[in-house]
């Protein structure tokens, strides 16, 4: 029997040896169909036990839905919430278990060393809970959770939405706590807010340490806090803050997702102390997978932890743990079998089996990490996509702690910002903003800061300078203190009264210690003192300029802005030799002369052939034409020399134009000669620079830098105090004074209220920001003070303050003494009249041309009759008789006959011829003599015409015949071309 057994054992020994070898390989070498994955969890925490349940459930679900291929074997290592323990557990998983990937660690602090182990061994490290931005997702580290930086824009949007200007972050002293701060500062700057102070809590704090920090926060102005720390420390912080009265009216608290993600796991006492707190956390969209997950998760948790209390509702870390395990399983399926294993270093390189250099290097790690980074699927927490090795943010929920739980206040997305409801493509558009928020203490929205704090008063810096109406800090000789008064001081006092809360303050006159006269330092230097928090604000005639705004904040301006120049004025036209020419612009004088000449030319052209008045030599024609135009300019001639209607038409145009010009000229000249006329000595800055004149500015003012930027020579600038302006301008540029004084408009208004009679403000306005109050950068007072300034400047209070310091409206207006360009008659103001005149000329010219061409077409032998001028007297009966002889086609002659006159005696030559008996000869001689006598009387004797113009009786002189009739036909040159004789 024994022999049979021995023989059977010998026969089966090879088979048994094979079984032992295969079993050993199964235990130590990992079959190709199974991939070992490690997980670092704190098994003493219910939360991390819940994550174990999620990961195991995910692997089971994946294997069930993807049969065949490699399967994942999960190995759990307890890290006990300790960095050293976590590192030791990771080494165990890498060295002893030979895991191909590690899920974890839990915290950012633990992750630092473990990430280095993964990079050394080429083993992928996947963390669903290490969120610090200090952890770089590169090489073999993958962050399947959200980076803390992803929530910073949502927090900044909340700060901007509630118009808070100062925020104090409260964070723990660790890589996790500090990592978010630089990104938060940058985001707040983009929404015009800043961090005046960082409250740092130790990573392992005592209650005394937390209370000391809270007491420090209570003494500060800021009332908006952002809490970023582990849930355990945050719970203690809120409990102590509630007891200190910091969860009351006026306070605002915001918690990051470090607390928001685990809010449902907090105890009721902590939640009760957080009433009114706002929180930010990633939002998980509800889906069928998520609804089915909860029940299965609870079942798996009870199975893994028998006898333990039922877990709380799964939080986002459990969802991310599920998706992380699923991603590893999917990556392994995508990468295929991992057959290369680990490359173990030689024992010759180390004297200790625990040396880190003895860790193997995964030969499949590079292929596996690439597969993990490229994995994409729809998980229970949303779409799983890795960009640059980490999960990307999508939607954040804004929640508000109320009662024993919370309510959703809204959502934030990178694309749409804050919205009251989640944006769904098929639903109505989301409303901008947030739903109603319940604040600590049940009050309205906190303004973000409180004043006063601990009885402190604002120290208001006031410049000390020679007396002026804007700010005057004069030293009281009786008390030794400064009495602060002035326009700017009254404005600031009025603004403080309009503030919605009490702001106690004291004025602190500031002098320059380096100056013997106890005068103030430069305004820019005072602004720097405010920026250094030596003073809480600065009140005075401080101009808002860009250089100062770089290190201080200004309120809205409360005065008119800009810089101009004031110059003296000089007498203008009333004492000028050629003042009579000034009322009419030179261009208009030229136009009048042109009309004058053209009118004379038209009349001469039309009348020259038919009127002896416009005939004769060339010189005589020019003189007569000019004289006639001047005569028409003064008055219409009683004996018109023009006969043609075209010339009369031109003359009427000239008379109407001359009448209009005479009225305007008289009015303008009267104004110039009777009103005191002044004009600026300088027109603009360019003229000053061109002339090389000296320019003045107020001592200590930024106007000096402005002039330098405008290319003014520094040696041509002189500084004065406002009470020296008038004297400097009176001396002038070349007598120790200046030609112009540059200053801000409010100062110039004060100067002009006294010296406007002989000075004026000219030139362009160089824009500035006006006067404003100065506060340190980020001061929460700036917004409220600016609103109060608007109330003062838009109301009646500003009027009474201005009347107090500057009096009523300026009675003297120097601008009224300046002849404006509109006081001179210009071509442009009368061009319409000239256009009408030119149009009428054109019409008359066309008509004249038509008539001229028509007459040229008549019979060449037909000669027009000339106009004859003749005075005839004849005796014929007792009564008077009017006889009209028509002697021309376009003229007539009036002949007046008088009766009962003696006959006209014959000349001696005629009597002698009659005596000789020659009747025919007598008649010829008598006719010739009468003709000669009539010609002489007609052409040589003008006494009758002169007497007619004077209205004297038309009787011939004594000794001459009282009856003579001579009718002559003459041309335009007074040459006889025919005639009629009658006695």
From TrEMBL:
UniProtKB keywords: Disulfide bond, Glycoprotein, Ion channel, Ion transport, Ligand-gated ion channel, Membrane, Receptor, Signal, Transmembrane, Transmembrane helix, Transport
Amino acid composition bias (Basic and acidic residues), ranges on this chain: 912-922, 932-952
Any coiled-coil regions, as ranges: none
Oligomer status and interactors: May form heteromers.
Keyword Transmembrane attached: yes
Similarity section: Belongs to the glutamate-gated ion channel (TC 1.A.10.1) family.
GO CC annotation terms, alphabetical: membrane
SUPFAM superfamilies: Periplasmic binding protein-like I (SSF53822), Periplasmic binding protein-like II (SSF53850)
Protein name: Glutamate receptor
Chain intervals for the UniProt region annotation (Disordered): 905-983
Transmembrane segments: 588-606, 833-854
Membrane topology summary: Multi-pass membrane protein
PANTHER family for the chain: OS06G0188250 PROTEIN (PTHR34836), OS09G0428600 PROTEIN (PTHR34836:SF1)
GO biological process entries: monoatomic ion transmembrane transport
CDD domains the record matches: GluR_Plant (cd13686), PBP1_GABAb_receptor_plant (cd19990)
Disulfide bonds: 756-812
Signal peptide feature range: 1-23
Entry keyword annotation includes Glycoprotein: yes
Domain spans labelled Ionotropic glutamate receptor C-terminal: 459-808
Compartments it resides in: Membrane
Alphabetized InterPro entries for the sequence: ANF_lig-bd_rcpt, GABAb_receptor_plant_PBP1, Glu/Gly-bd, Ionotropic_Glu_rcpt, Iontro_rcpt_C, Iontropic_Glu_rcpt_pln, Peripla_BP_I
């Amino acid at each position: 029997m024994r022999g049979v057994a021995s023989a059977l054992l010998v026969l089966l020994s090879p088979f048994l040896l094979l079984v032992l070898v295969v079993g050993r390989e199964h235990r130590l070498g990992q079959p190709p169909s199974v991939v070992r994955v490690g997980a670092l969890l704190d098994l003493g925490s219910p939360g991390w036990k819940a994550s174990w349940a999620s990961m195991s459930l995910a692997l089971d679900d994946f294997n069930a839905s993807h049969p065949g291929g490699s399967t994942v074997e999960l190995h759990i290592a307890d890290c006990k919430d300790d960095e050293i323990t976590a590192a030791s557990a990771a080494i165990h998983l890498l060295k002893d278990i030979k895991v191909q990937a590690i899920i974890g660690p839990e915290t950012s602090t633990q992750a630092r060393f473990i990430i280095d182990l993964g990079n050394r061994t080429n083993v992928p490290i996947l963390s669903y809970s290490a969120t610090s931005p200090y952890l770089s997702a590169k090489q073999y580290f993958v962050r399947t959770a959200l980076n803390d930086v992803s929530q910073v824009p949502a927090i900044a949007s909340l700060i901007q939405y509630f118009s808070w200007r100062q925020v104090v972050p409260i964070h723990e002293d660790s890589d996790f706590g500090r990592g978010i701060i630089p990104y938060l500062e940058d985001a707040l700057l983009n929404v015009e807010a800043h961090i005046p102070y960082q409250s740092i809590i130790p990573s392992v704090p005592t209650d005394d340490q937390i209370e000391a920090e809270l007491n420090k926060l209570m003494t500060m102005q800021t009332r908006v806090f952002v809490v970023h720390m582990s849930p355990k420390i945050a719970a203690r912080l809120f409990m102590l803050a509630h007891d200190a009265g910091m969860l009351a009216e006026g306070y605002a608290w915001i918690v990051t997702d470090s607390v928001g993600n685990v809010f449902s796991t907090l105890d009721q006492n902590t939640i009760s102390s957080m009433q009114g707190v706002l929180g930010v956390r990633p939002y998980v969209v509800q889906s069928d997978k998520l609804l089915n997950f909860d029940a299965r998760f609870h079942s798996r948790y009870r199975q893994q932890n028998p006898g333990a209390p039922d877990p709380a509702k799964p939080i986002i870390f459990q969802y991310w743990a599920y998706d992380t395990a699923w991603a590893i399983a999917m990556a392994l399926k995508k990468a295929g079998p991992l057959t290369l294993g680990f490359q173990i270093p030689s024992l010759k390189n180390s004297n200790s089996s625990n040396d880190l250099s003895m860790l193997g290097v995964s030969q499949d790690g590079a292929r596996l990490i690439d597969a993990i980074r490229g994995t994409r699927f729809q998980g229970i927490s949303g779409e799983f996509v890795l960009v640059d090795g980490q999960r990307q943010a999508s939607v954040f929920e804004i929640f508000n702690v109320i009662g024993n739980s919370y309510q959703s206040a809204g959502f934030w997305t990178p694309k749409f910002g804050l919205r009251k409801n989640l944006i769904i493509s098929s639903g109505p558009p989301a409303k901008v903003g947030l739903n109603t928020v319940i604040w600590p203490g049940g009050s309205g929205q906190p303004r973000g800061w409180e004043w006063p704090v601990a009885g402190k008063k604002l120290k208001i810096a006031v410049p000390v300078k020679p007396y002026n109406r804007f700010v005057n800090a004069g030293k009281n000789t009786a008390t030794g203190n400064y009495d602060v008064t002035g326009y700017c001081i009254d404005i600031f006092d009025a603004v403080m009264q309009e503030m919605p809360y009490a702001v106690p303050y004291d004025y602190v006159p500031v002098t320059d210690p380096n100056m013997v006269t106890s005068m103030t330092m430069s305004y820019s230097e005072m602004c720097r003192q405010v920026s250094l928090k030596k003073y809480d604000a600065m009140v005075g005639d401080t101009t808002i300029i860009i250089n100062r705004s770089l290190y201080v904040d200004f309120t809205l301006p409360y005065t008119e802005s800009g810089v101009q120049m004031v110059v003296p004025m000089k007498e203008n036209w009333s004492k000028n030799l050629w003042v009579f020419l000034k009322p009419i612009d030179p261009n208009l004088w030229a136009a009048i002369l042109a009309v004058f000449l053209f009118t004379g030319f038209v009349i001469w052209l039309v009348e020259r052939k038919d009127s002896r008045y416009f005939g004769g030599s060339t010189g005589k024609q020019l003189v007569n034409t000019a004289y006639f135009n001047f005569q028409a300019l003064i008055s219409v001639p009683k004996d018109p020399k023009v006969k043609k209607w075209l010339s009369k038409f031109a003359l009427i145009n000239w008379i109407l134009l001359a009448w209009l010009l005479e009225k305007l000229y008289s009015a303008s000249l009267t104004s110039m000669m009777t009103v005191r006329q002044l004009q600026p000595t300088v027109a603009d800055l360019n003229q000053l620079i061109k002339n090389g004149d000296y320019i003045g500015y107020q001592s200590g003012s930024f106007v000096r830098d402005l002039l330098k930027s405008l290319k003014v020579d520094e040696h041509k600038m002189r500084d004065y105090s406002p009470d020296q302006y008038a004297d400097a301008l009176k001396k002038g540029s070349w007598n120790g004074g200046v030609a112009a004084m540059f200053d801000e408009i409010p100062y110039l208004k004060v100067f002009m209220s006294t010296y406007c009679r002989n000075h004026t403000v000219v030139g362009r306005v160089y824009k500035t920001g006006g006067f404003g109050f100065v506060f340190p950068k980020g001061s929460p007072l700036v917004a409220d003070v600016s609103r109060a300034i608007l109330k003062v400047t838009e109301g009646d209070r500003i009027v009474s303050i201005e009347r107090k310091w500057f009096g009523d409206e300026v009675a003297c207006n120097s601008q009224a003494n300046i002849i404006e360009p509109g006081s001179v008659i210009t071509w442009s103001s009368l061009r319409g009249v000239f256009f009408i005149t030119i149009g009428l000329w054109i019409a008359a010219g066309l008509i004249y041309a038509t008539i001229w061409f028509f007459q040229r077409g008549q019979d060449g032998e037909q000669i027009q009759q000339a106009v004859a001028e003749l005075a005839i007297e004849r005796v014929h009966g007792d009564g008077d008789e009017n006889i009209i002889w028509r002697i021309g086609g376009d003229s007539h002659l009036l002949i007046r006959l008088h009766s009962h006159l003696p006959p006209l005696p014959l000349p001696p030559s005629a009597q002698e011829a009659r005596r000789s008996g020659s009747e025919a000869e007598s008649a010829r001689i008598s006719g010739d003599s009468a003709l000669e006598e009539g010609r002489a009387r007609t052409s040589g004797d003008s006494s009758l015409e002169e007497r007619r113009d004077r209205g004297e009786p038309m009787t011939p002189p004594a000794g001459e015949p009282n009856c003579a009739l001579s009718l002559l036909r003459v041309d335009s040159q007074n040459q006889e071309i025919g005639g009629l004789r009658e006695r």
